[in-house]
Design goal:
about 20% strand; globular; about 40% helix; alpha+beta
């Protein structure tokens, strides 16, 4: 899978000056300096260099900020990766940077571009974080002319080094797309360091191809951390009208009504409207009618990104709907 920006968005100083002798790229208003000797057209470069990348807020994970399009945010990070590739000699991209190139979403991109492979030094400098590791040739692939850690290796490393929400959301997506198996990830994990290996193995085991979005995956991890029972995913339910609906999550409560868990992303109703050729208000109205229909067979419980990012809020919602709790919440969430 390849997901790299248009190469025409990047320009080397030598190419610019060859076309326009005497040109000073750093003084050209239509260009943005990405790295030493590498420039981008102003709109794309400014987007990549702005606050679009890094720093999660209440809507940041799902939408990249209140005024940020996730697609623009992700494209900006990909442009930064490509600029590093243009400025450095055959780097190997790792971790979240590798996942971005493989087209696997996981939430907010990091503040740095990750590279790996054999080198005398490692560390963080000028927006690049490098780890000196001898890689097995099987763990390096080429994507659009760029050297990248294989998807199983990158997923295993992210699972070792990042929070479980980020790891599970990436693994869920890769499994859903059918581009990796759990055995491949565990095999790649065995070729990595021991630090975080148990956490990574848990993330691989917990992952589920039925999850359909980053928000659903983050929600699943939070639900587990809060001690609630694991829900069934993507279940078809028949409303009073006879219409069938697929709900994100379902809990069957002993002696009570089932609970339908619904994660509402920041752009949900805009996306629904676009798909159906409607206005956002029309899409919202249809969703309300859907809930009314489902109310005759169960209880729809909705939450958004802020509830996932602040677990106590999600805990109150699930408790109010009597979702079964099977163990105490993790101490870090209390």
């Amino acid at each position: 899978m390849q997901r790299t920006p248009d190469p025409s968005q990047l320009w080397h100083t030598r190419d610019l000056t060859a076309r326009s002798p005497g040109l000073r790229p750093d003084r050209e208003p239509q260009l943005t300096r990405m790295r030493r000797g590498v420039y981008a057209d102003r709109p794309a470069g400014d987007a990549a260099a702005s606050g679009i990348v890094g720093g999660a807020g209440a809507s940041g994970v799902g939408g990249g900020g209140a005024d940020t399009d996730p697609a623009a945010r992700d494209a900006g990070y990909l442009l930064r990766i490509r600029a590093v590739d243009a400025a450095r000699k055959q780097p190997i991209f790792a971790r979240e940077s590798a996942l971005a190139l493989h087209g696997i979403p996981y939430g907010i991109p990091p503040d740095v571009v990750y590279t790996t492979g054999h080198a005398k030094t490692a560390g963080k400098k000028a927006g690049i974080a490098h780890s000196a590791v001898e890689l097995d040739p099987a763990d390096i692939v080429m994507l659009g002319g760029i050297r990248v850690c294989s998807l199983p290796y990158a997923l295993a490393e992210v699972a070792r080094k990042r929070d479980p929400q980020t790891a599970v959301s990436a693994i869920d997506e890769a499994l859903r797309k059918g581009v990796v198996s759990k055995s491949q990830m565990l095999d790649a994990l065995g070729r990595q360091g021991s630090h975080g290996r148990r956490r990574a193995a848990w993330a691989v085991a917990f992952a589920d191809a039925a999850a359909e979005s980053v928000g659903e995956s983050w929600s699943r991890v939070r639900i587990h951390q809060l001690g609630f029972a694991a829900p069934e995913l993507q279940v078809w339910v028949t409303g009073r009208s006879g219409k069938r609906y697929r709900v994100d999550m379902l809990w069957r409560t002993p002696g009570g009504r089932p609970v339908f868990g619904e994660f509402d992303g920041a752009h949900k109703y805009g996306a629904l409207a676009q798909q159906g050729g409607q206005t956002g208000a029309q899409a919202l109205s249809e969703e309300k009618a859907r809930d009314d229909d489902l109310l005759f067979v169960g209880d729809p419980a909705h939450w958004v990104w802020i509830d996932v990012l602040r677990p106590k809020r999600l805990e109150r919602i699930l408790t109010a709907y009597r979702v079964p709790r099977i163990r105490p919440s993790l101490e870090s969430l209390t």
